[in-house]
Amino acid sequence: MKLPTKLLNEEEFVMTAGIVGTAKDGKTHVRTAKGLILAVRAAGCLLEPQEGDTVLLVENSYGGGYILTVLERDEKKTAVVDIPGTVAIKAGGGLTIAGEDVNLTGREQVYIATPVFNLRSRESSVETINLNIKGKHLLADLKSAKTVLGSLESSVGRLVERITRYYARIDELADMRYKRLRCFVSETLFMKGRDVNVRAEGHINMDGKKINMG
Q1: How far is Cα 1 from Cα 66, in angstroms, rounded to an integer?
Q2: How many CB atoms lie within 10 A of CB 49?
Q3: What single DSSP character describes residue 7?
């Protein structure tokens, strides 16, 4: 609702209170002591008025007005902060959002940018179709981990592992191809199979204090 500039003076507006009725096309019926007013929500009224709310408004001589704020409402109703257009929240100090349940929903995307990002939770769950992680360093410190994958492909330039115990069970085929392979066992090396084939295009060297075959 746009009012002529000449009406924007103290004498043309009367402040009053009323009860919100039905709303349509951005205009709300408000019942006051003088009668019914067709009002719109002022830009500074962040809380969306709902039917049955007690509101503070200013009335003009044309039977219209602006809803300035919500004074009282049923606590069982959900409070909605409805702001048209693009909104920016800026704080010179800290900013805290606290609630029993906090939901962030973006119709297109949710973007977070900060020099340091900390997330603390007793339990976390992430569900996504595609997950992309890019960075320079990754540190994971976990007491235990379990992964279930349909398939896994990895490309590593250099891999260093230190394992206390290693157990692997492959039900079908393990195909490993190396350009060079060195295996050092400080104590016992045991290999067993129904059929064992060792082939070399060049020489096979066996050296030991005692070699038993057969």
Answers
A1: 9
A2: 23
A3: G
The pair of three-digit structure tokens given for residue 8, joined into one six-digit string = 């924007």
The span from the CA of 77 to the CA of 49, in Å, is 11
Amino acid at 18: G
Continuous segment of H or E residues that includes residue 67: strand 64-72
What is the pLDDT of the chain when averaged over all its residues?
87
How big is the chain, counted in residues? Answer: 214
* CA-based nearest residue to 66, from 7, 118, 128, 133: 7
- Residue 80 makes CB contacts below 8 A (sequence gap 6+) with 47, 48, 50
Q: What is the pLDDT of residues 188-204, one digit of tens each?
A: 999 889 999 989 999 98
Burial (Cβ within 10 Å: 0-12, 13-18, ≥19) of residue 174: exposed
**What angle (nearest 5°) sits at the alpha carbon of residue 26, between those of residues 21 and 27?**
45
Residue 63, phi-psi category: left (phi > 0), alpha (psi -120 to 50), beta (remainder): left
| Cα 176 versus chain centre, distance | 40
HSE value, Cβ hemisphere, 13 Å, CA-based, for 75: 0
DSSP classification of residue 30: E
The angle formed by the CA atoms of residues 70, 24 and 108, to the nearest 5 degrees, is: 80
Q: Measured in whole angstroms, how far is the alpha carbon of residue 39 from the centre of its chain? A: 38
Q: What is the pLDDT of residues 116-173, one digit of tens each?
A: 999 999 999 999 999 999 999 989 999 999 999 999 899 999 999 999 999 999 999 9
Asked whether the CA dihedral 42, 47, 53, 56 is positive or negative, the reply is negative
